[in-house]
Amino acid sequence: MFNKEGIPFFTVIIPFFCILFISFLSISYNLKLSQSNFQLDLDEYKKIYIKTNIDNQTLDLLVKEKIQEEKRREELFLDFMMVVTLVVLLFMAFFSFLMISIIKDVIKKYKKQVQNREDELKALNDNLFMKVQCGIQEAKQKDKKILEQAKLARIGSMISMIAHQWRQPLSQLSGILMELETATRFKKVDENHIYSAIEKSDKMIEFMSNTIDDFRNFYKPDKIKEEFLISQSCSKAINIIDATLKNFGIELNINIKNDKKVYGYPTEFAQVILNLLSNAKDILVEKEIKNPRIDMSIDSKGILSTITIKDNAGGINEKNQELIFDPYYSTKDSSKGTGLGLYISKLIIERNMGGELSVHNDEEGAVFKIIIAG
Amino acid sequence: MQEELLKELKDISILCVEDEDGIREMIVSTLKYYFNEVYEASDGYEGYELYDYYKPKIVLTDIQMKNCNGLDFVKKIRETDSETMIIMLTAHSNEEYLMELINLNINHFILKPLNTKKLNEALEKYLIKAIKPILLCEDLILDLQKRELIYKSSEIISLRKREKDFLELLYKKKGSLLKYEEIEFQLWNDKEMTTHALKSFIKELRHKIPINVIKNIPQEGYTLQC
User: What distance in Å separates the CA atoms of residue B101 and residue B81, rounded to the nearest whole number?
Assistant: First the structure.
């Protein structure tokens, strides 16, 4: 009925007060008017009676009677006024009670709503906490998965590099055996022949064994910082990838102007070099560049050493240039790249060795530059 | 492999193309036991030059090589020559070339590493193809291995090497023409062939064979006539 929310009690009550006020004013004015009228009437009455020669005593008596009558009327009016006031007051009281109860209702409703909202918020809050927890868990798992993937990718590329490194000596070993077998068959084998075959085979086997050692040591984490020659660490990386480069017909030029000893983690540094070389190889193969080439140069001036690795694959898209060092950002197919290689390389160079790893394009291709203090 | 088959290989020439020096060296010294004539090249360009000059009967080539790879090399050979036996040597990762190789009509495919068994399989394949008796025409069979002609499956006529080679060449050119220059190149090797020598050679051969299968086309050469 009075379900209009938001109307204050006061606004409702004001018209009633106005009515009350007006009625009081009019009543009191009426009272005053009737009083003065009475007085006038009385005076007139007196004059008339004086003219009609009535003695003063009777006049007084008459006047007294009139006054009394007037008083009685006044009392009657007062009584009426009292009743009216009372009725209005009662009505107001009743109305006020009604309003108060309505307002109470409204407030209760509001309170309930607020409570509900609060509950909801609280629930949401709790939920949010759970959700955030879940999200963090998920993100962690994803991270783990990606790291796992990166690890697998690294193992995969390592195996492929071993395969390339081994294919040639394996073929050669097989060739030696084939030659020996055929010679035996044609009865043309002698002692020297066998010895020379064994010697050749031993060389091949030793080479293969060294390859395995190279690979095994390559991913062993460095424990302590030590002094190392930049060229030495670089050649570790080159030993791992040269068969792969050869297989794809990629020419690798190494130009050592000034070699220098630096203080840091040699194996980690070699991993960075390998990563840069391997990236260059990937893009050269992907873009099917004719006469693919990688130029590597080592130079040092003062305390700073600079290593640049440059390919002729046309360079990095400008849009990607700022992003390639970000984690999980890769321009390669998702099966080939995890987007961690350059990120980790940057971490190794900048955080672990206090150097700088940057990239820019020249007219032929991308140039990766490592600056290191030693 | 049977000993007599091995002997057949002696007179055949083979070209080996492989870019890894160490591996090629071993393959070539192995082949030298089987063949008298072994040529070696380290890439497709060199290989094609040697092929063009010596026309070997068998070509053994690697696929992945610097400069000119095996695929281009084989393509070039097959442009003019569908006879020469081509044996491809390949590593696992080169399977992508397989389709093209099939269309180039290569004869054998060897997965590296090469060993005696794989090599023998390939050579045997060549020999079986090379020494299968040829039906020159009705009633006349040419047995390449025994170097004889069989007439009406009873009469046996033995031939000289050059006579056998001539008939074989003639058979290969069945339906077309065996030119003088080709006879000179294939049968007289690097020696000069005089018209007189050829005429007396043909005359003698015709005399041996009971039916006349060699038809002369004046100024041009010979063709097989049945």
Answer: 15
Long-range pairs for A37-43: beta carbons < 8 A, 24 or more residues apart: A38/A70, A42/A66, A42/A67
How far B91 CA sits from the closest chain A CA (Å)? 8
Using the 8-state DSSP alphabet, how is residue A364 labeled? S
DSSP assignment letter at A344: H
CB-based contact, A171 to chain B, within 8 Å: yes
Kindly list the residues from chain A whose CB atom is less than 8 angstroms away from the CB atom of residue B22: 168, 172, 175
pLDDT, tens only, A272-285 = 999 999 999 989 98
pLDDT (mean) for A209-225? 82
Q: In sequence order, what DSSP letters do the residues of chain B get, joined into one string?
A: --HHHHHHHHT-EEEEE-S-HHHHHHHHHHHHHH-SEEEEESSHHHHHHHHHHH--SEEEEES--SSS-HHHHHHHHHHH-S-SEEEEEE-GGGGGGHHHHHHTT-SEEEESSP-HHHHHHHHHHHHHHHHS-EEEETTEEEETTTTEEEETTTEEEE--HHHHHHHHHHHHTTTS-EEHHHHHHHHSTTS---HHHHHHHHHHHHHHSSS--EEEETTTEEEE--
Cβ-based contacts of B66 with chain A (< 8 Å)? 249
- The string of pLDDT tens digits covering residues A270-323 is 989 999 999 999 899 888 888 899 999 999 988 899 999 999 998 888 888 888
Which residues in chain B have their CB less than 8 angstroms from residue A174's CB? 112-115
Compute the count of residue pairs across chains A and B with CB atoms less than 8 Å apart: 55
- Closest A-chain CA to B2: A185
- When pLDDT is averaged across residues A255-284 and rounded to a whole number, the result is 90
The terminus-to-terminus CA distance of chain B in angstroms comes to: 36
Q: What is the mean pLDDT of residues A328-349?
A: 79
> E-assigned strands of chain A?
226-229, 251-256, 261-264, 293-301, 304-311, 356-361, 366-373
Query: The whole model's pTM is what?
Result: 0.61
Segment 147-166 of chain A within 8 Å of chain B by CB: none
Instruction: State the DSSP code for A259.
Output: -
pLDDT of A178: 93
Other CB atoms closer than 10 Å to residue B174's CB: what's the count? 13
Q: What is the DSSP letter of A232?
A: H
Q: How much is the pLDDT for A10?
A: 67
Q: Outline where DSSP puts E strands in A109-250.
A: 226-229
Secondary structure letter of residue A334 according to DSSP: T
Cβ of A168 within 8 Å of Cβ of B23? The answer is yes
CA distance A266 to A258: 18
CB contact under 8 A, A178 and B30: yes
What is the value of ipTM here, to two decimals?
0.71
Cα separation, B207 vs B216, in Å, equals 15
The closest CB to that of A174, out of B29, B64, B115, belongs to B115
